[in-house]
Amino acid sequence: MIHTILTIVFVQTLVDLTTAAVNSHNPCGQLYLTQSPNKSKHVQLNWNFTCDNPPDTILLTLGDPKKSENAKILYRIFPGAVSNGYHQTDYAFRDVQLPGNWTEENPNPDLEAQCFDYYIASVRNNELVYSQCLSIQPAWMSNFGELRIGDMMIPGTHNSGAWRGAPLLIRNYVLNQDRHFWEQLVYGIRYFDIRTGRYGPSPDGLYINHAFIKCTELVPELERAVNFLKKSPKEVVVLNFHQFPYPSDFLISHHLEVLDVIATIFGELIYPLPRLMHRRGPKLKEFWQSGKRVIVSYRNANVVKETSWLWPPVRRDWGNIQQLDQLERYIKTKTVAPPNGNPMSVVMAELTPNYASVLKHVTRNLKDLAVMVNRELSDWLRDNNRSDNANIIATDFFTGNDIVNVAIETNFRKLSRHLN
Prior knowledge:
Elements: H1 2-11, E1 29-35, E2 42-49, E3 57-62, E4 72-77, E5 84-92, E6 114-124, E7 127-136, E8 154-157, H2 181-187, E9 191-198, E10 206-210, E11 213-217, H3 218-231, E12 237-246, H4 252-266, H5 284-290, E13 294-298, H6 301-306, E14 315-317, H7 324-333, E15 345-348, H8 355-360, H9 366-382, E16 392-395, H10 403-419
Parallel strand pairs: 8-9, 8-16, 9-12, 12-13, 14-15, 15-16
Antiparallel strand pairs: 1-2, 2-5, 3-4, 3-6, 6-7, 9-10, 10-11
């Protein structure tokens, strides 16, 4: 049976999608892979079939079954009447090298979208319907020079630097990510939510926090970002320094230490806030032409006023929500916010545990909550092209959702309307 499927797959005449293509080309809805936030990063199957005659089988393969009869079937499920679903396989994704030579040491990685070896495929009556790889998108912004930064949909992360550290007993309630800045950027994340703590003289004493809890050193993460920008010349990155939780009396002198580190690391890559600016911000091509591709927004009015290259804080919509249905309603009613000094706005798309919910559901840590949200989020945003009304969406454990591909699909629609 397996060999029959692969033989038929190999001779199929199908549209040859490039690795840069996204799931909107699927003739039967959505089909994509994600990764769980658990230690082994188990591969997850996701589907939302909208055609009248949906596929009867979903496969996880090693290699693209559309291109090779030797693609190895690793896992198979039969969705039956479940047209919209999620399934976690027992295949671990741990310690897989980024494709396209995307290592921090390599000076010339491949800028095209790159596939990992894992593919998801849908099959109907032993014939392939569609296949899609798990991919990275290190240069996706290069397609959208005509779009303005405040009009685009931009994938981001919440508590971006909270990917390691924190005491063991509370780690699952502190860490919101499992990838450092380099990997986040290579996957396609372009907005970073940063909370800064000072524990000693700069630069070594500056950390990225989650609330008052120290997580990871600030300087190495910013250095990873500048390293990425040097390799991918048309990407624009937004660094939103949102909170300064430690010490509680974060002094002006502490802010000046933070600014000195930012200026030293990014230098001429920083795009200053323009004195005259379109209400939705500059077009991406304006960033490219200037050679400056880092926006630094900062939540301290006095510091912003005295520092010409800082942007005011990105408007941040956070619902402080504990229930999934309430988060769905919150996200579906949000629209791009009117400009208020900064043309960008971000919706924080995550559940937030409170004391009562932790006591009631002891097992529901941040990873558990992220799994609940990430299963649904991409569908919420794709439904009726709702993502057209979003600017930045920030998520927890972002490899558990399809937010980067949703952004690319959305921006192609916006570009099409702009050009027409």
